[in-house]
Specification:
It holds the Pfam family DUF1918. This is DUF1918 domain-containing protein. The chain is mostly beta strands and about 60 residues long. It has one domain (about 10-60): SH3 type barrels. It contains no helices and 5 strands. The chain has a 5-stranded antiparallel beta sheet with strand order 4-3-2-1-5, with no helix packed on it.
């Protein structure tokens, strides 16, 4: 998994009815775009995360 600042991290809901959580990657802490990432969620909360298999990266050039 590789990302750059400005990409979107999407954590998919794990159970039926749970909403996806979207966050903007504000800092890449790993080497060459690899995790961990500092992210800012839509509610303003910031966290450092190492994405799991239920997460996808939407690169800024492909976002609509």
């Amino acid at each position: 998994m590789h990302a750059t600042v400005g990409d979107q991290l999407v954590q998919h809901g794990r159970v039926v009815g749970q909403q996806d959580r979207k966050a903007e990657i504000v800092e890449v802490l790993g080497r060459a775009g690899s995790p961990p990432y500092r992210v800012r969620f839509e509610d303003g909360h910031e966290a450092v995360c190492s994405p799991g298999p239920d997460t996808e990266i939407r690169h800024k050039e492909t976002q609509l």
